[in-house]
Amino acid sequence: MTRFAIWLGKNADAVIALVLAVVVAVLGLGVELGDGVVESAILLVMGLLSSALLRDRSRREPVEAEVRDVLLGSSHTLAGLSERLSHIERFEGVVADTKRALDETTAVRIIDGAQVEPVLAAARRTTDRWVFKGGTGTYIRAKTLPECVATARRERRTLLFRLEIIDPTDTEVCDTYARHRRSVSEDPDGTGEPWTLDRTRKESYATILAACWNRQRFNMLDIDIGLSSVMTTLRWDLSAGCVVITRDDPRGPALVVDSEKFYYGWCSAELQNSLDQARRVPIEQARAVELSDEPTVDEVRRLFTALGVALPGTYGDRDVVDITRRALRPRNPFPTP
Length: 337
Prior knowledge:
Endonuclease, Chain A, single chain, alpha+beta, membrane, transmembrane, about 325 residues, 8 strands, 10 helices
């Protein structure tokens, strides 16, 4: 009842006009009213309607003014919000750039010497390629090449190998390498041998022989060798999953770059460019010389002659046998402790 009374108070003029109009209409049906009465009733109704309209307009104007003020305030608020959003976008850009920079600072991982062998072993198990740049490739013959070939043969897939080693026919670079290894440590390495000019040359010859021997026994091995006249103190081992950069001392730290990092691509391009500048060994010429399971002295001599890296004239049969032993039964220079 209270709500009805409130509503009636707010809409009294309209109610009166409506009631008056109804009364006049009803009376007009049964009673003959004079023209003055009807006209007065009409004027009264119109006056009431006008009053209602004026009242509604007077009520609406403050509301409209308030709406305008609200919209104006909203416009200022939205303008400020837009500016804040632009600041947020710039901040998000700074955060993204910072995150990217932090990610790139971890592009290279540092591992200690004890972790090098497990990392290389994991890389060998899952790769279909290997790119090496280093000294004579002794570790390549001892572990990398035979294990990668065995895995590829078992899984019946192709295997890509690219090797860059020092040129065994270049006595100057071989002597420089031997002197460098002795300067780092005068003790024998993991093979039990000291580094000399003669050993350096034989190790490089043995890597070439091992490559040809494995290629003849596994047709899906695509192998290429480049001979460098420049010595490097680093060993680069690039697989499908990572790049491992080590030095001659297996006890020292090493660098690892995972394949999803940008620096991996840089390393790959650098190794390819370096190999292109090295003297290429025409491995395809090795088909002219069939190598036995245990190559004879004559087979080995004819192989190196066909490849354009003939053995020194001072090498006797015992030296050739020593090269064959290093090629097929190499000792691991970095034995697991």
